[in-house]
Amino acid sequence: MQPRPHATLEDVARAAGVSLATASRALNGTAPVRPHLRDRVLEAAGQLAYTPNAHARALAGASHRTVGVICHDVSDPYFATVAGGIMRVADDNDLLVMLASTFRDPERELAYVSILRAERAAAILLIGSGFENPDWERALHTELEPYINGGGRVAVVSRHRSLRVDAVLPENRAGAAAMARALLDLGHRRFAVLTGPRTLTTVADRVAGFRDELTRAGVPLHTDDVVEGAFTRDGGYAAMTDLLTRGLDATCVFAVTDVMAIGALAALRDHGLSVPADVSVAGFDDIPIVRDLTPPLTTVALPLQQLGERAMQLALTENPGRRRRIHRMAGEVVLRASTAKVP
């Protein structure tokens, strides 16, 4: 193994055959690591001439000025808008923000948390759905508990399962139920649903809220009516294409996120179908671009920037009793031209 300049933590983890989180803990001493793994990491770091990023550590020296924000994908307008709210409040308080994308990789999220602990960030904010994974939940708790005990602040957006930290929670389940009611009121009785990975709690909540409201109205939503894809525009396009290939038997398609709905609109257009004349389409979130689409998208509007602002405010506010503070934010159904009444 030959040394190379500017080796990264990822290089060390790969050379040692361990995860990023394990490499970070071994090098920074932030949590126990099995001796044989620690030895492998230290050996790899020595052979690669790895040194921590000096600039990052300089920022960490002013721990009262640094906030770490971890989201799924900052290129997604949902996360970009929420992060914008965080940055607005941070700037008002003379704070520096470090922003990281995990691309929905639980192991990468753990690694970023471990690194921010080592850099002594004053606060860590986690934006986006958690994972339906007990092992990940335990690992994240193990990372965060000593950080909080040491005076670090943690706030989350859209996570409500087991993390006992301050949280800003969009009403995902209630918002999806409200959308189902609105679509039923338009006369729709045959639905298809496009979802992201069902291991994400946000996906599970939105699908459950939508399904439960249909069930109350006596309208079935069969397993084949729910199609899973990536939580992206391309994922929505692929899921909609799958539905069309099988023969679309729905008057309305509900996508659990606007970016998937945008992909669905493109797929319908490419297959020569008109929205809403041939099929109605609805989404969830109200990211800024959807009101400018042709046709504008019906959606559940969340106060995205306020989600970020409130999370940052929670992280900045003293909480001597360390009792979990929860701030819930409701969504509002906005009917636009992508949905129409059933004749």
User: Fraction of residues in helices?
Assistant: 40-55%
Distance from first to last alpha carbon: 70 Å
- Dominant shape: elongated
Figure out the total of helices: 12
Q: List low-pLDDT spans.
A: 1-5, 53-63
Major sheet attributes: 6 strands, parallel
Rg, alpha carbons? 22 Å
Order of helices and strands: HHHHEHEHEHEEHEHEHEHEEHEE
CATH classification, class level of the domain at 172-302: Alpha Beta
Instruction: Compute the average pLDDT.
Output: 88
| CATH third-level topology of the domain at 172-302 | Rossmann fold
How do the strands of the widest beta sheet line up side by side?
2-1-3-4-5-11
Classify the beta-strand content into a percent band. Answer: 15-25%
CATH architecture label name of the domain at 172-302 = 3-Layer(aba) Sandwich
Protein name: LacI family transcriptional regulator
Keywords: DNA-binding, Transcription, Transcription regulation
Organism: Micromonospora costi
InterPro entries: HTH_LacI, LacI/GalR-like_sensor, Lambda_DNA-bd_dom_sf, Peripla_BP_I
Q: Nutshell version of this structure?
A:
The chain is α/β, with parallel strands linked by helices and 343 residues long. Helices cover 45% and strands 15% of the residues. Helix 1 packs across helix 2, helix 1 (9-16) packs across helix 3 and helix 8 (172-185) runs parallel beside helix 9.
